[in-house]
Amino acid sequence: MDFADFADRVAAIEAEPADLEVTSLVADLFVDAGADLPVVARLLLGRVVPAWDSTTLDVGPSLCHEALARAAGPNVTADDVADRLADAGEIGAVAESLDLDGQQGLAAFGAADPEPLTVSAVDSRLRDLAAADGAGSHDHKVEVLFGLFNRADSLSARYLARLVLSEMRIGVGEGIVRDAIAEAFDVPVAAVERALQVENDCGAVAVRARDEGVAGLDAAELVVGRPVSAMLAQAGTAVDALDAWESVAVETKFDGARVQVHHDPAGDTRVFSRNLEDVTDALPEIVEFVAGIDVPVILDGEALAVDDAGDPLPFQEVLRRFRRKHDVARMREEVTVEFRAFDCLHVDGTDLLDAPLLDRRERLADVLSDGLSPLAVVDDAEAIADHEAAALDAGHEGIMLKNPDSTYTPGKRGQNWLKRKPDVETLDLVVTGAEWGEGRRANHLGTFLLSARVGNGEFATIGKVATGITDERLAELSDRLEPLIREQEGTEVDIEPRVVFEVGYEEIQASPTYGSGYALRFPRFVAVREDKTPAEADSLERVERLVGERS
Ligand SMILES: Nc1ncnc2c1ncn2[C@@H]1O[C@H](COP(=O)(O)OP(=O)(O)OP(=O)(O)O)[C@@H](O)[C@H]1O
User: Fold this and answer.
1) Which residues share a beta bridge with 376?
2) Is 472 annotated as belonging to a binding site?
3) Mutation to probe ligand 1, out of 231, 232, 340, 420 (largest number of atoms < 8 A from CB)
4) Cα(234) to centroid of ligand 1, in Å?
5) What's the pLDDT tens digit per position in 440-472?
6) Which residues, other chains included, contact 109 with Cβ-Cβ below 8 Å and sequence gap of 6+?
């Protein structure tokens, strides 16, 4: 499929306001995609590689501006592109407005490939770009993007630019892709959903649905070494749990970082973070800990930092490891990280996603004798309160209440896992802006503008945080956020939404000051959530719920 045809179809999808119609248009596109089906399915979600692969294109705005300017010809500079972006507000409109003239551009710049740009050419060039690393990678990336923009017509440029900056925003989310696969190939939505959870790649699942139908979808299996999304929890109380289930599995809620451990005694051990990033090198203790397991396993659990007495330390200690991977040996001497396993997804060729929690826990105990998170099955509120008090006394964050009969549903924030924490409230919010500091802090960004997620790549501002940040941490945050600056006006900057802050606050108030209609009172910085992407930040819906609960 030519990329220009794909871009036409995407423009029609973007212009359609009704979800059902969007699903049908996407389904039609899937039917027509032929051999390009897996790539088309991923591109619609703004992905080049499957969701289980955390490789990113790592293209920042300035790199993209440089490539666009080169493709636009000698009269346009990267600064011009940035200026146009300030006016237009989104990169797709800018790319489209540059009138990149496809094949004429080729002649003008002497590019080697006279073929029209196809979907598969874009895919392979962007994979090549994603693999570029180290010295010279900047220039290589500009070169690859220039080559693509140079062969693109205006509409193609619009979607290419959005794709490389992870801003597809065409109103197509995972739910629509799931429903469209079902509609296109006449298979049940539930079967598609299940295969997506297991395989974590909409491209591969679309092909299964088309080529093998329900049987193919049902045959999707976990692969040791390929991460799946983690099952998530909702906030809940003992009463919620006892109302919903006959008995309750109570576990300690460890204040660490979620890890999924894939161990193959005949091969490799890999550790993945909650956003599926490979963090194996940052956590050698965990690799060593599971080294003795003599069958292939996929384990779910928490990486917990402990002090010399074995007592838990705050989760920031573990997250620091994810960030500074090259200092691991030194950091390991300073802080010990231990593994607490609480679930088991696969043992020795058998997937356990559909097994009840207590059965999975039995299998877990078969393969691991140490490092298990304790679990008690109880049926009264008093026993739950006792467990909570004991967990808090021991310095843990709270307790988890789980339905003993529940299956493991990857990526779902369902009602089968409830988290119960004392009322220390924090929100995970996306940094979308900042202000330069004053005086001693003039070289650093000092105040950070925070936003809640409103859906499909959009964010609404809700407050500013400047409190709770040490000078050292401020320098670190500045280094981190400066490359993400999109625009500057006076001392205020607009920042690409990439980094998530955990922020404490006293109260949430209705307020016209911010786009969300709410403002945090007394916000204070707690940590950078290295393990969360903006898509996993707290939503405005959650904020509204919190406000509702309080009033
Ligand atoms: N025994 C346990 N069982 C399940 N999850 C646990 C357990 N102990 C600690 N956790 C952590 O609690 C998280 C569950 O809460 P949730 O799914 O809401 O994630 P979260 O948004 O990171 O929440 P939080 O910030 O409260 O940890 C898990 O992702 C995991 O990291």
Assistant:
1) 250
2) no
3) 232
4) 9
5) 777 889 899 999 999 777 999 999 998 778 778
6) 71, 150
Rounded mean pLDDT, 235-260? 93
Query: 297: Cβ–Cβ under 8 A, 6 or more apart, which residues?
Result: 224, 261, 262, 263, 290, 344, 346, 347, 348, 367
Q: Per residue in 412-425, pLDDT tens? A: 888 999 998 776 67
| Cβ(149) – ligand 1 distance below 6 Å | no
Active site residues: 253
Q: What confidence score (pLDDT) does residue 114 get? A: 59
Is residue 102 very low, low, confident or very high in pLDDT (cuts 50, 70, 90)? low
- By alpha-carbon position, which residue is closest to atom 31 of ligand 1? 258
Buried b (16+ CB within 10 A) or exposed e, 205-217: bbbbbbeeebebb
Of the CA atoms within 13 Å of residue 245, those in its CB half-sphere come to 22
Which has more confidence, 103 or 517?
517
C-alpha span between 178 and 301 (Å, rounded): 28
Compute the distance from residue 387 Cα to the ligand 1 centre, in Å: 17
Ligand 1 and 254: CB distance under 6 A = yes
66: phi then psi, degrees, rounded to nearest 5: -60, -45
Residue 342 among known ligand-binding residues: yes
Q: Is 162 annotated to bind ligand?
A: no
Our answer on whether the CB atom of 317 is closer than 6 Å to any ligand 1 atom is: no
Helix (H) / strand (E) containing 328: helix 328-334
Q: Is the CB of 6 under 6 A from ligand 1?
A: no
User: What whole-number distance in Å separates Cα of residue 231 and Cα of residue 38?
Assistant: 25
Residues in the chain: 551
Structural domains present in the chain: 47-164 (1.10.3260.10), 232-420 (3.30.470.30), 426-550 (2.40.50.140)
Q: How far apart are CA 279 and CA 166, in angstroms?
A: 22
Write out pLDDT tens, residues 292-346: 999 999 999 999 999 988 899 988 889 888 877 778 888 888 889 999 999 999 9
The pTM score is: 0.80
d(CA 543, CA 76): 43
Are residues 198 and 222 in contact, defined by beta-carbon separation less than 8 angstroms?
yes
Q: At what angle do helices 137-150 and 154-164 cross, to 10 degrees?
A: 150
- State the average pLDDT for the chain: 91
| Spatial CA neighbour of 280 closest among 270, 265, 291 | 270
Residue entry with tokens 């008995």 = 247
Residue 186, C-beta contacts closer than 8 angstroms, at least 6 positions apart: none
Single out the residue of 223, 242, 479 nearest to residue 377, CA to CA: 242
CA gap 322, 258 in Å, rounded: 12
